[in-house]
Amino acid sequence: MNNLFKGLIAGYGAKKLGGGCFSTILIFIIIYWALGTCNKEKAPAPQTTGYVYIQSNSML
């Protein structure tokens, strides 16, 4: 998410939820942090086929 949009959304939420100066700043920080952590992508898990290949060097 773009930092500008995160700031706008966090500012709007802090204005609506905050009561005083300190609580508004605290709510802004919490919302801004939450929006930043929700957007992180996780690395995809390695794909496995479920097959095991065994190579034998002995001759029957």
UniProtKB/TrEMBL annotation:
It comes from the Bacteria. The keyword Transmembrane applies. The chain crosses the membrane at residues 17-35. Keywords: Membrane, Transmembrane, Transmembrane helix. This is Uncharacterized protein. The lineage of its organism: Bacteria, Pseudomonadati, Bacteroidota, Chitinophagia, Chitinophagales.
